[in-house]
Each structure stands twice: as structure tokens, then as C-alpha cells.
Write a structure and sequence with these properties.
Helix content is 79%, strand content 0%. The chain has one domain (40-299). It has 301 residues and is an all-alpha fold.
Length: 301
């Protein structure tokens, strides 16, 4: 049994497109869950429990690797702190905060511009320029995202009202893009060591904010909704999602990985069809085809 599992995980570890697609699927569920749980768990508490519990889950498996990698981790303490701050703490707190004040459709629309700040950060930090194929792919998949969100009617875009929650989502995307771009400089340590340190570091960085949030009157409702939310966000978009994201970017790079963000609204609409009883319509098919074509174009060498 262990040999079969090892072969499966070994094969999966070499499939960047599948890994990044699964990350987008998990994150689509995270947007729906985050919006649904906004009245049950405040943003900092949700993020703190998310990373704290995920850290406790991964720690027993990562402990032997952490012991081996600790000298390297100490030498790169500043960079590891930056990863924890941008990818684990700031990005998710701001995203959950924004979800309290905006609609899921706004988040999906704003997230569709995610490849742009990734391209800007890689240009500023490393001098990378987006290739013509990547530009065509991003624009094609963006068109597919708009078709899905607008349900085939472009006039819907002009009827969307933007609010302060959307500003928080945009700032969150800037932090996510910085995290994505900086993964090129990731220290040479085991993936389990990396996610354990960034998850634990993110939890520590959020602790003062958690105390402040509780002191200002925010309360956590430990009911069934809260427990199910924590179970999902700790395992899928956090533990598995970040392992898959980091490995996918390690193989094909930040700019080629960024268009996979456009799969989030695709999976979000599929989840709505499966779980909320929405009907599959023609505009869905058009949008899916454009997104898939764009992602394939942008992700190719």
C-alpha cells in the first residue's frame, strides 16, 4: 500500500499543471466558504486558526526535515519571515476582511487581474518580461473569466458596485503576487520544512492582531458552521493548496503559473452548478473554453 501511495505522490509531484489546477479548485471553495462564514469567524481569527491548525497537522511529518534544514532556515530567517508575512498572514487576513464587505462575484472579478501584479513584481525584482504567448494567454483566459462572471452579458460588469471590501481584496492580491514572485528565492530546504515554517511564522505574526481583534469586541461563534469552515480551510486551501502551489511554481515559474488564477471562477461556477443547483448554460461552455485555452497558451514554454 505504501509503495502504491509513494508512486502516486511521486507522479503527482511532477505534474505542475494538475497541482496548480487543484490549488485553484481549493481556493474557489475557500472564497465561497469565506463569504459564508463571515458572520461566524472574524478575519484575523479565521486566518490564525487556519494556519495554526494546519501547522499542527504538518508538524509531526515535517519535524525530521526541520531538524536537518534548521541551519539553512536560520541563515534565511528574514526571507522566511517575508514569505510568512506575505503569503500566509497579510494576504489572507485582507482577503477575509474584504469578503465581509463585498460579494463573491466582486472577488472573482478582481482576482482575475491576479496575473498582472505577479508580472509586475517579477519585472521589478528580477527583470523578467512577460512573453507574447503569456500575454495572449492571460488576455484569453481573462476574457473567459469575464464571460462566466457576466453570464454572457457584458452590461453586468457596469452594474457591479465596488466598495471598501474590494480595496482590501486588491491589496491582498499585491501581497499574494509578491509571495509568488519571491518563491524563486526560496531557500534550498524540504517542502515540508518550508510550509511548516511559513505556517508557524504566519500564526506567530498574526497573534498580536488576534489579541487586538478580540479586545475590540469581535467574537468567535464556535458552532457547526465555524467547525466545518475551519476543517475545510485548514486542509484544502492551506495545507494541500500551498504545497501544490509552491511545487507548481517551482517547476514552471511565477509568470507561467499566474494564469491558473483564472481557473478559480471556473471552478467556482462548477461548484455552484453541482452544489447550489445552478444550470449549466452556453456562456459557461464559452467561458470554460476561453479560460482553458488561455491557461494552456500562457503556461507553455
Amino acid at each position: 500500500m505504501g509503495g502504491v501511495f509513494g508512486r502516486i505522490t511521486g507522479w503527482l509531484n511532477q505534474q505542475p499543471y494538475l497541482l496548480l489546477s487543484l490549488t485553484s479548485l481549493f481556493w474557489a471553495g475557500n472564497i465561497v466558504i469565506g463569504r459564508f462564514a463571515s458572520g461566524h469567524v472574524p478575519p484575523v481569527a479565521l486566518t490564525w486558526f487556519r494556519w495554526g491548525i494546519a501547522f499542527l497537522i504538518v508538524l509531526p511529518f515535517a519535524a525530521p526535515r526541520l531538524k536537518q534544514d534548521w541551519p539553512v532556515i536560520r541563515r534565511h530567517a528574514g526571507l522566511m519571515t517575508t514569505f510568512a508575512l506575505t503569503g500566509n498572514a497579510a494576504f489572507h487576513v485582507m482577503a477575509y476582511y474584504g469578503l465581509q464587505y463585498t460579494e463573491a462575484i466582486n472577488v472573482l472579478l478582481l482576482q482575475s487581474i491576479g496575473p498582472l501584479p505577479v508580472a509586475l513584481w517579477t519585472l521589478v525584482l528580477f527583470g523578467d518580461r512577460i512573453t507574447p504567448a503569456q500575454a495572449v494567454g492571460v488576455l484569453t483566459s481573462l476574457a473567459g473569466v469575464l464571460v462566466i462572471i457576466c453570464r454572457g452579458d457584458i452590461a453586468i460588469i457596469f452594474g457591479i458596485g465596488f466598495n471598501r471590501g474590494d480595496i482590501w481584496i486588491l491589496i491582498a492580491l499585491v501581497f499574494y503576487a509578491l509571495y509568488t514572485a519571491l518563491l524563486r528565492k526560496r531557500p534550498p530546504i524540504h517542502p515540508l520544512s518550508f510550509i511548516a515554517v511559513t505556517m508557524g511564522g504566519g500564526t506567530l505574526l498574526l497573534t498580536p492582531l488576534l489579541v487586538l481583534e478580540i479586545s475590540t469586541g469581535y467574537a468567535i461563534r464556535f458552532d457547526t458552521t465555524t467547525l466545518l469552515t475551519l476543517a475545510y480551510v485548514c486542509v484544502f486551501p492551506s495545507l494541500l493548496g500551498y504545497m501544490f502551489l509552491n511545487r507548481g511554481i517551482e517547476i514552471i515559474g511565477a509568470n507561467r503559473s499566474a494564469p491558473f488564477l483564472h481557473l478559480v471562477p471556473v471552478f467556482g461556477s462548477v461548484l455552484a452548478i453541482v452544489f447550489l443547483g445552478e444550470r449549466l448554460q452556453f456562456f459557461h461552455a464559452v467561458g470554460y473554453a476561453l479560460v482553458l485555452a488561455g491557461v494552456i497558451t500562457a503556461a507553455r514554454r
